[in-house]
């Protein structure tokens, strides 16, 4: 068995997930991690699956099953890309008026401090822009320095930014 | 079982329906200023907040900066909400301060000023606050729990320039919403 990344993007309608997963099941694929959402109303899904058949054959099979409104790609991935829980987890929220460059300016600061974005959602509705990211920052990092850089970006763009420690209760 | 506590709300002038503002309006990100609870303009604002809150179906609370006034005043009435376990009825509170908060619980909330999204937010379900009723210079203490505690937490956040969007639990904690229910 080989690990493949399957991505599907296109016009949303009921039944897409059922079609994808049925096609995968018929092909003997074993679905591992999945992420699916609607982006501005478009269907967007990525899966990692263990597959026995040829990637091109699977891609063709999915494309036929899904029709022209959806784009499919199947590509090989290295089996285990898990990096494990490194550092400390924070939630970064950004909200304000939409302006080009907000995401780039904010994520540049995170990258500069060796922070790793492990989950990211951005949403635009009318003039309100939202970004919520889960960020893993190296343990012992200078949080005040990051916060002051984020505050400065907030002032430049006229947006509100908050970096909050994720409380993990192990029960 | 609903526990009701009546506050000594005064008779207010006739309220006017005010226009509400939506994010990203800067009024919603501003720290609101303390005011004199006996000021006649504040009594009028209290009445206007109640009228505006009632005009928006499903709205259980309204902070002054949601109508573009950066002052520490909010209206609240959770008495008809099915999740309410303790209620102080319809009231307007001025210069509120949190004395203690505990027992955080996560739930999904929306806001009149964020019409297109809801989000999962952790809020205290045991809350003690102080503040002033309109027209009075006697500080009162409100002890509450459950949904009313969460609603008050949401309103005091407004007065400090915070929206629920600033407190969402994670990247998958924001959801699209079509309209305010």
- Classified in CATH, the superfamily of chain B is Peptide deformylase
User: Approximately how much beta-strand content do the residues of chain B carry?
Assistant: 25-35%
Gross CATH architecture of the largest domain in chain A: 2-Layer Sandwich
- How many structural domains does the protein architecture of chain B include? 1
Give me the oligomer status.
heterodimer
CATH class of chain B: Alpha Beta
- Helix share, percent of chain B: 10-25%
What's the tally of helices of chain B? 2
Total discrete domains of chain A = 2
Instruction: Sketch the topology of chain A as an H/E string, one letter per element.
Output: EHEEHEEHEEHE
Largest sheet of chain B: 6 strands, antiparallel
Instruction: Return the CATH architecture of chain B.
Output: Alpha-Beta Complex
Shape of chain B: globular
Percentage beta strand of chain A: 35-45%
Main beta sheet strand tally, sense and closure of chain A:
4 strands, antiparallel
Q: Please name the CATH topology of chain B.
A: Peptide Deformylase
How far apart the termini of chain A lie comes to 36 Å
Secondary structure layout:
The complex is a heterodimer of chains A (about 170) and B (about 180).
Chain A: E1 2-11, H1 16-26, E2 30-39, E3 42-51, H2 55-66, E4 70-76, E5 88-97, H3 102-112, E6 116-125, E7 128-137, H4 143-157, E8 159-165
Antiparallel strand pairs in A: 1-3, 1-4, 2-3, 5-7, 5-8, 6-7
Helix pairs in contact in A: 1-2, 3-4
Chain B: E1 3-4, H1 40-55, E2 61-63, E3 73-76, E4 86-87, E5 91-111, E6 114-132, E7 140-145, H2 146-159, E8 174-176
Parallel strand pairs in B: 1-4
Antiparallel strand pairs in B: 2-3, 3-5, 5-6, 6-7, 6-8
Task: Walk me through the structure.
- The complex is a heterodimer of chains A (171) and B (181).
- In chain A, strands 2-3-1-4 form a four-stranded antiparallel beta sheet, with helices on one face. A four-stranded antiparallel beta sheet of chain A has the order 6-7-5-8, covered by helices on one side.
- With 171 residues, chain A is of the alpha+beta class.
- Chain A folds into two domains: 2-76, ACT domain (Alpha-Beta Plaits), CATH 3.30.70; 88-165, ACT domain (Alpha-Beta Plaits).
- The mean pLDDT of chain A is 92.
- In chain A, a hairpin with a 2-residue loop joins strand 2 and strand 3.
- Helices cover 29% and strands 43% of the residues of chain A.
- With 181 residues, chain B is an alpha+beta fold.
- Chain B has helices at residues 40-55, 146-159; strands spanning 3-4, 61-63, 73-76, 86-87, 91-111, 114-132, 140-145, 174-176.
- In chain B, the strands form two sheets. In chain B, strands 2, 3, 5, 6, 7 and 8 form a six-stranded antiparallel beta sheet that branches. In chain B, strands 1-4 form a two-stranded parallel sheet.
- In chain B, strand 5 (91-111) and strand 6 form a beta hairpin.
- The longest helix of chain B has 16 residues, at 40-55.
- The radius of gyration of chain B is 15 Å and the shape is globular.
- Chain B starts with a strand and ends in a 5-residue tail after the last strand.
- Chain A binds chain B through residues 38, 91, 93, 95-98, 119-121, 123, 125-130, 132-134, 158-160, 162, 164, 166, and chain B through 22-24, 26, 29, 114, 116-117, 161, 163, 165-174, 176.
């Amino acid at each position: 068995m080989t690990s493949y990344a399957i991505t599907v993007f296109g016009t949303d309608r009921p039944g897409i997930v059922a079609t994808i997963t049925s096609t995968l099941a018929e092909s003997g694929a074993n679905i591992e991690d999945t992420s699916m959402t609607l982006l501005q109303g478009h269907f967007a899904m990525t899966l990692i699956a263990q597959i026995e058949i040829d990637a091109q054959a699977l891609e063709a099979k999915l494309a036929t099953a899904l029709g022209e409104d959806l784009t499919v790609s199947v590509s090989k991935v290295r089996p285990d890309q898990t990096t494990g829980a490194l550092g400390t987890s924070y939630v970064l929220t950004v909200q304000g008026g939409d302006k080009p460059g907000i995401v780039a300016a904010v994520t540049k600061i995170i990258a500069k401090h060796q922070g790793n974005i492990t989950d990211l959602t951005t949403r635009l509705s009318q003039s309100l822009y939202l970004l919520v990211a889960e960020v893993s920052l190296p343990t012992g990092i200078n949080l005040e320095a990051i916060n002051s850089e984020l505050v400065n970006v907030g002032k430049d763009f006229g947006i509100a930014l908050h970096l909050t420690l994720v409380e993990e209760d192990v029960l | 079982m609903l526990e009701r506590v009546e506050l000594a709300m005064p008779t207010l002038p006739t309220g006017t329906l005010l226009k509400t503002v939506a994010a990203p309006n800067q009024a919603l990100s501003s720290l609101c200023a303390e005011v004199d609870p006996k000021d006649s303009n504040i009594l009028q604002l209290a009445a206007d907040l109640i009228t505006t809150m009632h005009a928006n179906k499903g709205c259980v609370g309204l902070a002054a900066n949601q109508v573009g006034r950066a002052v520490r005043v909010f209206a609240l009435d959770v008495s008809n909400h099915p999740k309410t376990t303790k209620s102080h009825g319809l009231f307007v509170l001025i210069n509120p301060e949190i004395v203690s908060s505990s027992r955080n619980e996560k739930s999904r909330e929306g806001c009149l000023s964020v019409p297109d999204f809801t989000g999962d937010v952790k809020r205290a379900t045991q809350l003690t606050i102080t503040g002033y009723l309109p027209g009075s210079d006697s500080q009162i203490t409100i002890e509450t729990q459950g949904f009313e505690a969460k609603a008050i937490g949401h309103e005091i956040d407004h007065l400090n320039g915070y929206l629920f969007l600033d407190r969402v639990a994670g990247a998958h904690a924001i959801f699209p919403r079509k309209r305010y229910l």
